[in-house]
Amino acid sequence: SKYKLREIRESPKNIPDDSTDNITIFTRILDRLLDGYDNRLRPGLGDAVTEVKTDIYVTSFGPVSDTDMEYTIDVFFRQTWHDERLKFDGPMKILPLNNLLASKIWTPDTFFHNGKKSVAHNMTTPNKLLRLVDNGTLLYTMRLTIHAECPMHLEDFPMDVHACPLKFGSCTYFLTFLLAWSSSKRN
């Protein structure tokens, strides 16, 4: 395909036909996928377990407060799962979606058990990524800052060592129905 530079003042009617065709194709795909889709029901309900693979990319850690027994962590929290209802056939294998679509499909209800406060970043738009693969696999990533409790035993202060876990799970489903750590190694 050819790329053409256009001036900003050029009207949409001058966009090449192949670009307009792709927009039409993906609009139809999205309309068809969401027609009759019930986002209240998890994928595989009644048949199978919905395996949600998770991983975390830590962008910063700290500060750690020994007085409040908490820490702050900034992460990209990634979740991947398969939803048969969202399979599609189109000119692209991966469909990058607007994060607003996340409210129209089933997404895991993950929360942090030991979180005191979690903030989803929204500058300049929500820092979320949603991708749909043609086989129905979804990747949902969000940037979060989490303030979590870290129980500390200060008997040997200041020479003591602490482990500060980040515990998470599903709010409404048993852990055996949903979460699994991703086995892929990332740098």
Automatic annotation (TrEMBL):
Localization, UniProt: Cell membrane
Keyword Membrane attached: yes
Main location: membrane
Topological type in the membrane: Multi-pass membrane protein
GO terms assigned for molecular function: chloride channel activity; extracellular ligand-gated monoatomic ion channel activity; GABA-A receptor activity
GO cellular component: chloride channel complex; plasma membrane
Key words, A-Z: Chloride, Chloride channel, Disulfide bond, Ion channel, Ion transport, Membrane, Transmembrane, Transport
The organism's place on the tree of life at top rank: Eukaryota
Pfam families, A to Z: Neur_chan_LBD (PF02931)
Boundaries of every Neurotransmitter-gated ion-channel ligand-binding domain copy: 27-173
Family from the record: Belongs to the ligand-gated ion channel (TC 1.A.9) family.
Name of this protein: Gamma-aminobutyric acid type A receptor subunit alpha3
Species annotation: Equus caballus (Horse)
Organismal lineage: Eukaryota, Metazoa, Chordata, Craniata, Vertebrata
